[in-house]
Write a structure and sequence with these properties.
The chain is mostly helical. The chain has one domain. The relative contact order is 0.14.
Length: 447
């Protein structure tokens, strides 16, 4: 029987086994997490013809949700890798303080974001691509969704500390609990109470509350290797700078996702109208599903790589990077084939609107062209983040999202490609940004 110390010691055993032991539960957890929004879209996309506008309304709300996720990553993905590195060095006192400080930052920032986004939601939703037809749906959803922001940020941000303590199965249960409630409550609120998009939002918030309570119960209980204690909930400037300097990587990745989506929605509304904003909602939904195994493997690898880096086990770090990259590239090649083969079926999964089904498969095939390049980007980003190399991680995130894909999203349609240009911007940026990040990682970290 393994003790708590054995469970959290990543310096022993084969690296691929250690990474898979983390990755499989995390992938399942990510799969369940995605159901928070994916199931919502599936229900709304098939309710009635008018509810295709509800699907578009949720698509318009994506950038705000991405912004909330960005602040969650700023603190959660900054604190958890540093926590793993400190444990690898044997500095449990600093690791415990990192955990407490991260909790405090997540709590305070979530309250501030809830208030700010509530006040600014109308101008923001119009800025992010809403029309007069889709705005009422987006507003109904966001009014309720924002109330769950503190629970969402604490559950997601602190769940990384459960994984970093060697308990990925408990971390998986965090999202499974919330998703199970969401799956049960969605049909009740939609088909029994007939609350429409408001019912979907209420189900999501209730599920987020349940996940948050689960996370806090574990981190403050006896099963945690380093329990979360009240005396550690202090915000010290030095620790905040340490967390933010690494967490800015995840923040920029998520915030630039918001930027790209804003540019895409606005451009599609100009060149194609609400229908093409709906097509992008379908594309994003498929992407979230297909990226799950990639994010599962890379997220599972991060604490293992970080622990071994802190323990100065360079050979094991290189071994872990190789396994993570090969697994991610192999999977994304298979996912690309799936999209080429089953694009119409993937579109019908999210909508019964004939007009939307008519354009979404073509958009999917364009967007996912050369999908395996995405694996190089994610593997390199995760490696830089795992070892605390925020400088490279930030640069390559900005390179792909801000310097390449956002300008292309705005430029390619104007050059005569129309709406196709918006969907082609992603594969071009994946190839350019992904190869640049991976080659740099090989020439620096691997050597």
């Amino acid at each position: 029987m393994r003790t708590k110390t054995d469970t959290g010691n990543f310096a022993t055993g084969k690296m691929w086994q250690r990474i898979l032991a983390q990755s499989v539960p995390l992938t399942l957890a990510e799969l369940v997490q995605v159901t928070y929004t994916i199931v919502d879209r599936i229900y709304l996309g098939h309710l009635s013809q008018q509810d295709s506008m509800a699907l578009i309304g949720i698509g318009v709300a994506f950038p705000i949700i991405a912004l909330i996720n960005a602040f969650t990553s700023l603190f959660g993905q900054g604190g958890a890798p540093l926590f793993a590195i400190s444990r690898g060095k044997g500095d449990d006192a600093h690791a415990a303080h990192l955990q407490g400080c991260t909790f405090a930052l997540l709590l305070y920032s979530s309250l501030a974001l809830t208030a700010l986004l509530w006040l600014l939601r109308r101008p923001l939703l119009y800025l992010f691509g809403a029309s007069d037809l889709s705005y009422p749906y987006a507003d109904q959803y966001m009014r309720i969704y924002l109330l769950g922001t503190p629970f969402t940020m604490l559950a997601t941000g602190m769940n990384g500390f459960i994984n970093a303590q060697g308990s990925p199965r408990i971390g998986m249960c965090t999202t499974m609990l919330g998703a199970a409630m969401n799956l049960l409550l969605d049909p009740v609120f939609l088909f029994v109470f007939h609350w429409g998009i408001r019912g979907v939002a209420i189900a999501t918030v209730i599920s987020q509350v349940a996940s948050c309570l689960w996370v806090m119960r574990f981190l403050t209980g006896r099963c945690a290797v380093l329990p979360l204690r009240r005396r550690e909930l202090r915000v010290r400037k030095k620790t905040v700078l340490e967390i933010v300097s690494l967490g800015v990587v995840g923040f920029i990745m998520k915030a630039t996702n918001s930027l790209v989506q804003i540019a895409a929605n606005a451009t599609l509304r100009t060149y194609g109208g609400d229908l093409y904003v709906g097509a992008m909602t379908v594309v994003n939904s498929v992407r979230e599903i297909l990226m799950l195994p990639v994010t599962g493997v890379t997220s599972g690898a991060q604490p293992v790589l970080g622990y071994n880096y802190g323990a100065k086990q360079q050979g094991r770090v290189r071994e872990g990077i190789r396994f993570m990259t090969v697994a991610a590239v192999t999977y994304t090649c298979l996912a690309w084939i799936l999209v080429l083969w089953q694009a119409p079926a993937l579109a019908r999964l999210f909508t019964s609107d004939a007009a939307l089904i008519g354009i979404a498969p073509h958009a999917l095939r364009l967007y996912f062209f050369g999908f395996f390049f995405q694996a190089f980007q994610v593997s390199a980003q995760s490696t830089f983040q795992a070892i605390g190399d925020a400088r490279h991680a930030v640069f390559f995130s900005l390179l792909r999202k801000v310097i390449i894909v956002t300008p292309l999203t705005l430029l390619l349609p104007a050059l005569g490609l129309g709406v196709d240009g918006v969907f082609l911007a992603e594969p071009v940026s994946n190839a350019m940004g992904g190869l640049a990040a991976f080659i740099t990682m090989v020439r620096t970290v691997m050597r």
